Records
---
Amino acid sequence: MSDQRRRNLCCVRLAAEFTTEPYHGEGTPPAHAQRSWDVIQQAGLPGEFGPLGTRFSGEVDEVLDTLRAVLAAAIDAGAHRVTVQIEPEE
């Protein structure tokens, strides 16, 4: 990729959305979902916790570093799968 086409990510904000599985339906969220949300709150990033997905955002390094910790926490707490989507925030 040429330098002209390469995007500088230093000033980009990202939004990450992820779902941890298995999903147990209504009621208390599974430990892997709750532990993932705890990581985001400890990082101090804005986000939304939901039964079918959790979303958070921040500067590129904040999101990528936090996402690494989220994945580790989810898997450590019993997640069999974590599906992730990342997109730039406009």
---
Amino acid sequence: MKTPDGVLGRILTRTRERVLSRRREMPLDRILVTAPTPTGRRPFGPAISRPGQVNVIAEFKRRSPSRGVIREDLHPVSVAQAYEIAGAAALSVLTEEQFFGGSMEDLREARAATLLPTLSKDFVVDPYQIWDAWYAGADAVLLIVAALEDGELKQLLATAEEAGVEALVEVHAEPELRRALGAGARIVGVNNRDLTTMVVDLGTALSLAPLIPDDVVAVAESGISGPGEVRRLRDAGYDAVLVGEHLMSGADPGKTLESMIRESSAQRWAGRADRAGTRVFVKVCGITSVDDALVAARAGADAIGLVFWPGSPRRVDLETARRISGALPPFVLRVGVFVDAPREELARTAEEVGLDVLQLHGDEPPDALAGLPRRVVKAVRVGPGFVAEDALRYEGRADGVLLDTRLPDAGAPPGGTGASFDWSFAREVREKASFLMLAGGLTPQNVAKALSAVRPDAVDVSTGVESSPGRKDPAKVLAFLDAVARAGTRGPRA
């Protein structure tokens, strides 16, 4: 195989030299004869694919070609133990020496200090390296498709199986993914970093997710630096994320990991999605009674909306909101709808009612969303003069963007108008927004057409399922949920 260009090519050239030297120092037959008594391998695949969990493969890495020195003041034992306490699903330890400053000794020490399954992170080009990692106690090894011919990849997978270690097969593009699956990979890692240029693009993992079969464990790697990215990747169908630089750059890697897991564990709109397409989630807004809330929940709604804006005919007081919230099943999200409410009111209401999400319909600027006590969906009204940037300026600040109708009247309400807007306005927002909710005049009769035109992540309905303002019609609610279900899943974006 022609040696790849760029940084990867230089690493592979040095790796082959290192393997020859290591073979002379420690021949394979000596490794097999002098190997310590096996203490049992720790299952790697099952540990990183626990359903309903934020599965993080936490990495110990001193430096990298793209970043240079990250941290050289930390010991693998203390970091590994901090990761285990913080909730890591598995460890990854860099064992490449020249470019990453790693070693097999780092792996031995880190694994011995915890009960976590441990991945040996190296650039494997020779079966010898798998046995060397096995000798050091690794539970899994990394195989990079871009570094290997098809025959080499199959040989290395067979060697890993013989050694009793699992293989995380890393890809960066669709042709590499096809090669990995064709070779029999059962754990696939999608690296967002191009190893020839070192450029990182999270869109790599998002675009390849639908192509990974559901019975293959999927791992997203590189460029993951916050809970928002973890949630996006989980929603795309990834079983685990591998995080290194972000954790090692923190003042306390363990606390950084703990915070990432906690903030990524917030209840989502639904459980893990099939990678072939994500179900569209449904919120029924303007709930004013326990009976209507239960109608929505039993029909299959993922969330209900409680309006706290005094100007709405669907406004509820705190006591009513508490009763509604308390009557709902735990899997239904409670969303509070506000218009330019003070931060103190948002915090107090969220705590007293038990809200999961804040939906803001006022003129709140992006900076005002920082530090709010719950996840935030920012509503943006669409009408004449609307441009995509009106909504996209909230990307990265809000957890989701909602598009609703703006009526031309000066005194028009900020939502719940029952009127729809030209869905073509949503197309550019759809292509760039990480989570898009569609509202405005949706009904059981038009929601399928709206889903086809916009491909949103979620829909929000109120007036379209009412018999009168604030009173839901059970037949209409059920018809709306049925129409969404019949319209099918939201497939991957083009």
---
Amino acid sequence: MKASSSLAMVIGFILAALGIIGLISPDTYVRLGWFWAEPPGIYIVPAVQLVMGLVLLRAAPSSRTPVGLGVLGAFALAEAVLMPLLGHGRTRGIAHWWGSQTYGSLRLWALLELAIGILVVIAVLPSRRALHPATSAT
């Protein structure tokens, strides 16, 4: 497995773990969401998203779903570029909106994040054929 695929798998596990946290404890999920709205998170999160986007784009061509992983990577890159442009005031507004959501809607977002994380992991897993080559019947 290539390094980019291994890193993409780690990203998938992290996304899935965040989704599980959101399903179990929406309050903790909201507190994690506040991290990106306040310094130093407002500076750290775009850097992490930039790395995530580059890793997903790098892993996409050799994955099971190159287009899907490429779109996720492009989305992470766009978010990394746009977030600093929003500024501190707007990110705080988004965080307030996020914190005002019902537990049900937060759990739906967490379920989506869990699903995306699982799909990223599945996308970069080696194919079964590569693990068990077929034998020719002669």
